[in-house]
Amino acid sequence: MKLAVNGASPLCKNKNHQWPNVDGEESSAVERCFERNHFSGFRAGNYDGGPEVINFETVVKKSTDSTYAVGFDTWSNGIVGAMMAFGLAPGDEVIITPYTMTSCATSILSCGALPVFADVCEDSGCIDPKDVERKITDRTKAIFVVHLFGIPADMDPIMELARKHNLFVFEDCAQSPLSKYKGKTTGAIGHAGGFSFTESKHITCGEGGMAITNDVKINNGMRYVRNHGEVCSTAKKASGTNAFDYCFDVYGSSGMIGYNFRLTEMAAAFGASQWEKLPQILDQKKKMAKVLIEGLQPLAEKTNLFSLMIPEYDHDPSWYNFPLRYTGHHTGVSRERFVSALNAEGANFMCGYVPPLYGQDIYTSNKNWVIEHFGDHIDYENPECPTVERLWSKELFATLDIRSPYTLDDMHNIVKIFEKVCENFEELKK
Predict the structure, then answer these.
(1) In total, how many domains does the chain have?
(2) At 94, which CATH number?
(3) N or C: which end of the chain has fewer CB within 10 A?
(4) Are 53 and 71 a contacting pair, CB within 8 Å?
(5) In a 3-state reduction of DSSP, which class is residue 204?
């Protein structure tokens, strides 16, 4: 026996994760808040946040080709803010991928609207524009795009559908900060988008999120939702019109339901410091991905056991993780067996990503009030998403280890692990 999964010595030793990467710069940034004795700048008459929040928003919008940026305490709440700014009403429909975090779809439900699940493309894991078109109805209000794994979705046909049917487009860039689609920054292609700063993402401020948009009304709406539905000075200034077009007075209501989704000064200071490091982090990830692509693509073509997920359209991923598809079912060896052999040699791959959202009880039980009252025409038990089902159950596997503390040498070792497992593949049939 030559494979570690069968008792032989492993090729490499896996490393312990050391993420996120932080240093004294983040500490210094947070210390500024203590020096100022200023931890939240959201006060009567100024609901835009303090200097750290404003600075963080400014840094993000400048680097994302966006006119506006709005910080939130969590990205899940940022999504809710965007959905409410779109003006979703009870019974409206939003077409969304089922292959994403649960909060993406529940943000739609929280507005009284209905998520309609569309299939994904096998070469990206992102929503399939062709299936989106099939699922548009007279109730459809928006398309919810998730740039999964840091790979940009195919945005041109999505935006064309939006123009044709007068729909909003939202881009979830939680895994794809500063990724590019045909030279355009993701998040700024649709009507709104944004980023997550939870601890597992490219950069972090503990918990937090940032929405971006080029639409003044959406910007205003998100700021209202963030701050109890109350007016904010930026919204009035940005509108270029009389304040009474948007609100009653400085202490008044915007006419929208809102919450306390405000970002603290400490989180914003931490996040802005991290954002400055994002280009360096992405450069490291891209170099690692390049080693994997150049090493694995010839092997994939030679063995027909797996394939890389790389769309044909022009794109520049930010590589949250590195996904592949297992295509060796014709051999009688399952994906799980193949991946276990890789991991036994010192790799660190997971199978399937997250279960499709439509399988969750909130949809199948029909007990959610939105689904109960408006969703009788939507079949959540049979959503017709065969590619999602295939990726989840049989094909997709991915690794997060294209980031510190892993190095280019580690990527070369992963290539060697694939070579070893493929060379001795017959052992896996026993």
Answers:
(1) 2
(2) 3.40.640.10
(3) C
(4) yes
(5) coil
Does residue 281 share a domain with residue 268? no
- The residues facing 109 across adjacent strands are none
Name the stretches of the chain with pLDDT < 50.
233-252
End residue of a domain, out of 251, 274, 297: 274
pLDDT at 29: 74
pLDDT at residue 31, as a whole number: 81
Q: Looking at 244, 274, 304, which one is the last position of a domain?
A: 274
Q: Are residues 340 and 237 in the same domain?
A: no
Query: Cα separation of 101 and 74, whole Å?
Result: 14
Classify residue 18: in a domain, yes or no. no
The verdict on 233 and 352 lying in the same domain is: no
Residue 247: its pLDDT value, please?
A: 40
- Do 322 and 235 fall within a single domain? no
Burial of 426 (0-12, 13-18, 19+ CB in 10 A): exposed
* Residue 17 lies inside a defined structural domain of this protein: no
- For 298-313, the pLDDT digits (tens) are 999 999 999 999 999 9
- Characterize the bridge pairing of strands 114-117 and 140-146: unpaired
Host domain of residue 33: 24-274
For residue 218, is it within any domain?
yes
- Which string of DSSP letters, residue by residue, matches 233-249? HHHHHHH-S-GGGT-SS
Say whether 27 sits in a helix, a strand or coil.
helix
- Domain-embedded: residue 268: yes
Q: How far apart are CA 278 and CA 318, in angstroms?
A: 10
CB contact set of 147 (below 8 Å; sequence gap of 6+):
126, 153, 171, 172, 173, 175, 176, 179, 186
Same domain membership, residue 375 and residue 236: no
Closest-CA residue to 319 (of 112, 147, 61, 195): 147
235 and 248 share one domain = yes
Query: What is the DSSP track for 64-91?
Result: TT-SEEEEESSHHHHHHHHHHHTT--TT
Per-residue model confidence as pLDDT tens digits over 349-406 = 999 999 999 999 999 886 788 888 888 889 898 899 999 999 999 999 999 889 988 9
Residue 87 CB contacts under 8 Å (≥ 6 apart), including other chains: 141, 221
* Tokens linked to 296: 């694995």
Q: What is the 3-class SS of 84-124, one letter each residue?
A: HHCCCCCCCEEEECCCCCHHHHHHHHCCCCEEEECCECCCC
Model pTM above 0.85: yes
